[in-house]
Amino acid sequence: MTTPASPLLSVQGLRVVFPGRHGAPEARAVDGVELDIRAGEIVALVGESGCGKTTLARSLLGLERPAAGVVRFDGKPLEYSSRALRAYRRRVQLVLQDPSGSLNPRHTVYDAVAEGLRIHRHAGDERKAVADALSRAGLRPPERFFLRYPHELSGGQRQRVVIAGALVLEPELLVADEPVASLDASVRGEILALLLRLRTELGLAALVVTHDLGLAWNIADRVAVMYLGRIVETGPVEAVLTAPRHPYTQALLSVLPEAPGEPVVLAGEPPDPSRIPSGCRFRARCPILANGEADRAGVADRCRAEDPGVLNAGGESQAACHWAAERVGA
Ligand SMILES: Nc1ncnc2c1ncn2[C@@H]1O[C@H](COP(=O)(O)OP(=O)(O)OP(=O)(O)O)[C@@H](O)[C@H]1O
Ligand code: SF4
Ligand SMILES: [Mg+2]
């Protein structure tokens, strides 16, 4: 049994590295991530393109082998034998952005949803399990969908089929990589409402990867903000989105249409995981360092020389930033 003190999923010091091509330096796509997800909790993972969200999501499923660090599920470190991974994937399921890409166009809805049961040699009533999963994913009456093909469905219905395929094994955690990004705005809300209902009805935890901070606000209990391979701020959604502490989170929020004040446009090159700066990884683009505030707070030298380190993911809102730490007197 997982207690509140022991997270369902816990990631410590996780690093995933891709070799550089043609002698280029390696890409440190995930570079020291700390992250906890508790049972029944929805965590939104946000950050700009290329910051490592998908690589992190895949490594939680065991699809990327870490160069360092550990992923623990229910207290136990992940094992990477194919047998152990197969057992693990009953409990943790991945839902991808593009439902068309995840569904075989030649398979009926029934076969798509039953596939997981067959892989895992489900002993019970297959037809009932498929019907229950479709119904939980909001496709009712489920029998009406059994013999339909993906091209006969709307985008929202296809995503529901993908979610049903994940639910059929009764997992404890869904890892959803941009689950609504390819859908029309009108059906996004419905799919998000579905994820929230699954949490209430089944106690399902979820890590939802998204570019969209508004979506994070509507769905998540906690937010983790990722920058260049690292979670740089994490905390309850309300704390992080109304009182962001890391200059990167502040900049992300400042460009939302409803944000007060001037948008903060980040200077400098887009970040490159094969060239992570020394000191604070955000320093080349940090407005607080550029405008002298870090200097006035007496931390500018540390910004240049000292990595603010990884976040301890246990407590409330936390930011990997010398200036933010100075401001709260930590
Ligand atoms: N298989 C791979 N081989 C080499 N480099 C990779 C590989 N997969 C990802 N990368 C690099 O790792 C970094 C992180 O990529 P990732 O796809 O995890 O980012 P992301 O945050 O999911 O981006 P997006 O928001 O665009 O989906 C990028 O610089 C990417 O080019
Ligand atoms: S540690 Fe310094 S450079 Fe990094 S985000 Fe904080 S203020 Fe900016
Ligand atoms: Mg991605």
TrEMBL record:
One Gene Ontology term from the biological process aspect of the record: transmembrane transport
Keyword set, alphabetical order: ATP-binding, Nucleotide-binding, Transport
Pfam families xrefs: ABC_tran, oligo_HPY
Membrane-crossing segments per the record: none
InterPro entries: AAA+_ATPase (IPR003593), ABC_transp_ATP-bind (IPR050319), ABC_transporter-like_ATP-bd (IPR003439), ABC_transporter-like_CS (IPR017871), Oligopep_ABC_C (IPR013563), P-loop_NTPase (IPR027417)
Protein origin, superkingdom: Bacteria
Domain (ABC transporter) ranges: 11-253
The protein's name in its UniProt record: Peptide ABC transporter ATP-binding protein
Family, as annotated: Belongs to the ABC transporter superfamily.
